[in-house]
Amino acid sequence: NTYNLYFRRIINFIMKISFTATALLSILGATTAFTTTGYGKASTTALHASGVERNPNFAKLAGGYLFPEIGRRRTAYLEANPEMADRLVSLGIGDTTQPIPDHILSGLINGATQLGTKEGYSGYGDGEGMADLRTKIASELYNNLIATDEVFVSDG
């Protein structure tokens, strides 16, 4: 309904602002430490400016973003092995090499057309993905070996 749509948009907006502010504070080095007591012991924990405990493994990550590094290595490989250009399948950032098949394209067009009607408009779907799609995945792809609530559909 309209209320849920507006509520979700407000929450998404707040989350974007919160993430942006948190990222900015992190860049500026706005971290703190405080002492907590748990299980009878005092322990010091590094906290992010938002008050959320940091995962210590983030400090172990090497600098740089993964996908540009994959791109550099792919380019270097192809420069050294130009005969492989037609055979190399890049599994990096998800760049496509073929057009969308007709049956998928017609489904996308049909879905977009339905969203343009009052009867077909659905707004935001379930957080776990469309219930009917999850049911179909459980039954058709997994022969009902898993329950519908074990299926998660996302765009990422």
UniProtKB/TrEMBL annotation:
The organism sits in which domain of life? Eukaryota
**Which coenzymes or cofactors are required?**
pyridoxal 5'-phosphate
Molecular function terms from GO: transaminase activity
| Gene3D superfamilies given in the database record | Aspartate Aminotransferase, domain 1 (3.90.1150.10)
What InterPro entries does the record point to?
DapL/ALD1, PyrdxlP-dep_Trfase, PyrdxlP-dep_Trfase_small
The keyword Transferase appears for this protein: yes
Q: Supply the alphabetized keyword list.
A: Aminotransferase, Pyridoxal phosphate, Transferase
Keyword match Transferase = yes
PANTHER family recorded: AMINOTRANSFERASE (PTHR43144)
Q: What is this protein called?
A: Aminotransferase class I/classII domain-containing protein
- This chain's source organism reads Proboscia inermis
